[in-house]
Design brief:
The structure is a single chain. By secondary structure, the chain is of the alpha+beta class. The protein is built from 9 helices and 4 strands; from the N terminus they run E-H-E-H-E-E-H-H-H-H-H-H-H. Strand 3 and strand 4 form a beta hairpin. Helix 1 packs parallel to helix 3. The longest helix has 34 residues. The radius of gyration is 17 Å and the shape is globular. Bound molecules: glutathione (GSH). Glutathione binds next to helix 3.
Length: 210
Amino acid sequence: MKLYALLPSPNTFKVVALAHHLGLDLEVVDVDVASGGNRALDYLAKNPNGLMPTLEDGDFTLWESNAILMYLAQKKPESGLWPADAHGQAKVQQWLNWAAIHFGPAIRPFFFERIVKARFGLGAPDEAELKKATDAFPKVGDVLEAQLKNQPYLLGEQVTIADFALASFAPYAKMAGMPLENYPNIQAYCGRVTGTEAWKKALSFMAAMK
Ligand SMILES: N[C@@H](CCC(=O)N[C@@H](CS)C(=O)NCC(=O)O)C(=O)O
């Protein structure tokens, strides 16, 4: 399988971490955004959004990182990362949607202002945008903090792809200056997830590619 990727980025990282966790072979191709690689016609034919990641498995092509997580997890059902029962699957979907629709947009300004701008030479962080994002963060931070109060993972004791999706921000949280000081459960969760062998391997794999 081949993954067209943007390094470093949480959406790419979550897929690479999952592939390591499941022991799946994944060839990672870093798409050169600076020279317009993601707008090239051959890439747009794979993913018309011009975004990364995109997975190729033989002649099957798939974009949207959370859909890719679901596809890969189903290759190893015994991992339990994609539950077999309807309630478990619905709960995973609930957190995948929340991560994509609510949590992701809420933390995007920290990543854009402090990481993306520096990487692509887009100027200094906009302090007004950062303040707005910091003020709004409790709306999602409080929900996540409460969910993790009495359990190690989003669904309880068992890690699922929802954790791979949601916690993909964790390796970059410090660099992005996310306001996590008052969120001990989220901090512990980040450490728990990123401390696993698969996440450590994925991080050093991605670092070595740059
Ligand atoms: N919802 C998409 C988002 C993909 C996305 O926004 N990818 C970013 C990297 S995290 C990207 O490719 N950015 C390049 C660009 O905007 O030109 C997913 O989860 O795969």
